[in-house]
Design a protein that fits this description.
- The structure is a single chain.
- This protein is an alpha/beta fold and 621 residues long.
- The strands form 3 sheets. The protein has an 8-stranded mixed beta barrel, surrounded by 6 helices. A 5-stranded mixed sheet has the order 4-5-3-6-7, with helices on both faces.
- Helix 22 links the parallel strand 15 and strand 16.
- The protein has 3 domains: 211 residues, Rhopdopsin 7-helix transmembrane proteins (Up-down Bundle), CATH 1.20.1070; 137 residues, Reverse transcriptase/Diguanylate cyclase domain (Alpha-Beta Plaits), CATH 3.30.70; 255 residues, TIM Barrel (Alpha-Beta Barrel).
- Helix content is 57%, strand content 15%.
- It contains 23 helices and 17 strands.
- Helix 14 runs parallel beside helix 17.
- The radius of gyration is 35 Å and the shape is elongated.
Length: 621
């Protein structure tokens, strides 16, 4: 006997390898993962029955095996083939047909499958074998092919039309998988001796495993926890299928500057302790953060208590846990909103942040502002307002600070206090800073302000830009494009830059200073810069923060400190800008103190470009 089962045996080996790889690795137990395993199992069953049906037909043809037994085996194979097509459709449609409005369609397909299986079971079947050509035929076979084609085409259509709900990578994998299977189903009509359906199905499982269902892709090898991208998938799956859960995020906060070895040791010990709490999925979110998800709030609270107890026993690591606690996932509309909440509070100074109705309302307002900033950037509703500086020695207004302003779709100005904190948390401050700098250069290019006595404009560059951009290259490129002389620009740097970006900031400052650009240290007196960092900056001006200026008139100790600082800063060859001067009394006090520039409402609020030019005409001439 020359059995035509080489491709089926090869497919069976492939499926065994995929099943071994899939089951031996810890996985997320997502709905898609469960459905993939069911589809993989049905494919395995189908492959075995395919081999079994060929052997049965062979023995029935040449060795007298009962035709009835052979018919049963052949029908079982055909029914498993329809099952495989149905399970493939179930896997592909798990997200698209999960919503309440579309669940009815999934029920319809399930009814079609059940009825189809019953029809195959009661329909007539025949079989044929001659040499290496072997196949089943009759009504049962025709119904099987019809049913399989329905599921294959439905899956392909769903992948093509689901561009808004199905990720591109998933759509591509589904299309290749179903395309291979469809092609393999038609090849026997042209070359009957090539029985490729089983092997094509096995190849499809390999494609799905490698592209979508490989558990190793979502594991952090060092900690043994799942990754941040795995958390995104897990949360999305929970919300798609309306599953309630609880979650906490813990961040290791060091009380001192930690070196690499200390940080790594703390992360590994924390991972081990959290994994030992139970079988719940643990996610390492990088930067010393972990998330754990529970089915019930009570279980989460119990494990949190255990974690607090373990933390209290740690005495050799100078660190403490910072927690974000979400008792009930249904307080958020979707996974994106929950992740936004975590992102908002992941570096909060509070020991514990608990998601409640009030914090979620605040979050949704932040999201609205975030979207408003995005749309304002896209539609260029970003404006520059200017607040003038009074030059004490020349008794004129010779400088100004450029301040960002945003208008909503109706043209109404949004208060900076509403959008600046959101922009700083989200990183949008970087794009706003770039846009403002470009607009200031366009304004200076016209030369209007210079002809009215303006020497320079101060523009704030956020520390975020020094973490993500090449600010030196960007600043010089834009200035060159608009023909801006270096002395016309003064860049403001905040004292509160994080330690890990200070070296990058200083490097760029040195580069720009060499090109003739000056710097001001903004918000002096509110940051956490040390003296070494302060004196290493190539500064021309120091700006006293509004609270510093106000404190000068309210507290004798602050008055003495400020007076000493004025002398020290002048001795270092720098000039002083006093911000937040609002009354005549404060103006008189700053003049006596000996500051070089005065900025505040006592002269002018921040105003648009045209009104700023009118102000210069009125005050300087």
């Amino acid at each position: 006997m020359n059995l035509n089962i080489e491709f089926q045996c090869a497919g069976l080996v492939v499926l065994i390898i995929v099943m071994f790889l899939f089951t031996r690795t810890k996985n997320l137990q997502l709905t898609n993962s469960r459905l993939f395993f069911i589809a993989l199992s049905s494919c395995f069953l189908c492959e075995i029955l395919d081999i079994g049906s060929i052997i049965a037909i062979c023995y029935s043809t040449y060795n007298g095996l009962s035709a009835g037994v052979t018919s049963v085996i052949c029908k079982l194979y055909l029914m498993s083939l329809a099952l495989q097509g149905f399970q493939g459709f179930e896997y592909a449609s798990s997200e698209t047909l999960a919503s309440g409005q579309r669940k009815w369609l999934r029920i319809v397909y399930r009814i079609i499958f059940i009825l189809g299986e019953l029809i195959i079971a009661v329909s007539g079947i025949g079989f044929f074998m001659e040499g290496r050509i072997v196949y089943s035929f009759g009504p049962a076979a025709m119904w099987t092919y019809a049913l399989a084609v329905i599921f294959i085409i439905s899956t392909i259509v769903m992948a093509v039309l689901g561009k808004d709900t199905i990720a591109l990578r998933r759509r591509k994998a589904m299309l290749v998988w179903q395309g291979c299977w469809l092609l393999a189903a038609f090849i026997p009509f042209l070359r009957p001796q090539l029985l490729l359906v089983g092997f094509a199905a096995a190849a499809g499982m390999v494609i799905l495993y490698s592209e979508l269902e490989n558990p190793n892709e979502y594991l952090d090898r060092e900690t043994g926890c799942f990754t941040r991208s795995a958390l995104n998938l897990y949360l999305r799956d929970k919300y798609i299928h309306s599953e309630r859960f609880s979650v906490f995020v813990v961040r290791i906060g060091f009380l001192i500057d930690a070196d690499y070895e200390l940080e790594r040791s703390a992360v590994m010990r924390s991972a081990k302790a959290i994994l030992e709490l139970g079988k719940e999925p643990v996610f390492y979110l990088e930067d010393r953060k972990f998330a754990v998800i529970y089915h019930k709030k009570e279980e989460m609270e119990k494990k949190l208590g255990m974690l607090h107890e373990m933390e209290s026993r740690v005495t050799d690591v100078p660190a403490e846990g910072k927690y974000i606690i979400i008792p009930d996932s249904t307080i958020f509309r979707n996974s994106e909103e929950l992740l936004h909440f975590i992102h908002t509070y992941e570096y909060d100074a509070a020991e514990e942040v608990v998601a409640n109705e009030r914090s979620v309302i605040h979050l949704r307002k932040d999201i609205m502002v975030h979207e408003l900033i995005d749309s304002a950037l896209k539609e260029d509703r970003i404006e520059v307002f200017y607040q003038p500086f009074y030059n004490v020695s020349r008794e004129k207004f010779t400088a100004a600070e450029a301040l960002v302003r945003i208008r909503d779709t109706e043209g109404k100005l949004i208060p900076p206090v509403e959008f600046i904190p959101v922009a700083e948390r989200s990183g949008q401050i970087r794009e706003l800073g770039i846009r403002i700098f470009e607009k200031v250069c366009i304004f200076l290019e016209s030369g209007k302000a210079q002809r009215l006595g303006l020497d320079y404009i101060e523009v704030n560059l956020s520390a975020v830009q020094f973490d993500h951009e090449n600010p030196s290259g960007f600043v010089q490129r834009v200035m060159k494009e608009h023909g801006i002389r270096p002395e016309w620009i003064n860049l403001e740097i905040t004292e509160t830059a994080e330690a890990d970006v200070r070296h990058v900031l200083l490097k760029n400052m040195q580069s720009l200073s060499s090109a003739g650009i000056h710097f001001s240290l903004d918000d002096f007196g509110t940051g956490r810069a040390n003296l070494d960092y302060f004196v290493s900056m190539p500064l021309s001006n120091v700006k006293f923060d509004r609270s510093f200026t106000q404190g000068y008139f309210e507290n004798e100790r602050i008055r003495r400190v400020v007076s000493g600082m004025v002398k020290m800063i002048h001795d270092m060859g720098m000039k002083i800008v006093s911000e937040g001067v609002e009354t005549d009394e404060q103006l008189e006090g700053m003049l006596k103190l000996g500051v070089d520039y005065i900025q505040g409402f006592c002269f002018s609020r921040p105003v648009p470009e045209d009104r700023f030019l009118e102000f210069l005409v009125e005050k300087n001439f």
